[in-house]
Amino acid sequence: MTEAGDASTLGRFLTLADTAEILNVTVAEVLELVRSSELPAIQVGAGGPWRVERVVLESYIEARYEESRRLGLWLQSDFSNIPELSAGRVLRADE
């Protein structure tokens, strides 16, 4: 693959090298993602090469963006304090 923009010309399945180039990581890192089942892939033949379906890779990337967005929101939050949870009133244990 020469450019990330050429992804649509690669066809349905990507090699681990193509996947690594798109993700800007090493082939070993992609293989670890595949082996850990974090990135679904198929192995062609018995002991053959791994292939990642292009739409699966796109879904994986979208999921990582969503995970990053949620983590950012979580880190920005200031854990709700008592007045926020009680509409501004301070609640006592006997209430």
UniProtKB/TrEMBL annotation:
It comes from the Bacteria. Residues 13-64 form the Helix-turn-helix domain. This is Excisionase family DNA binding protein. The lineage of its organism: Bacteria, Bacillati, Actinomycetota, Actinomycetes, Micrococcales.
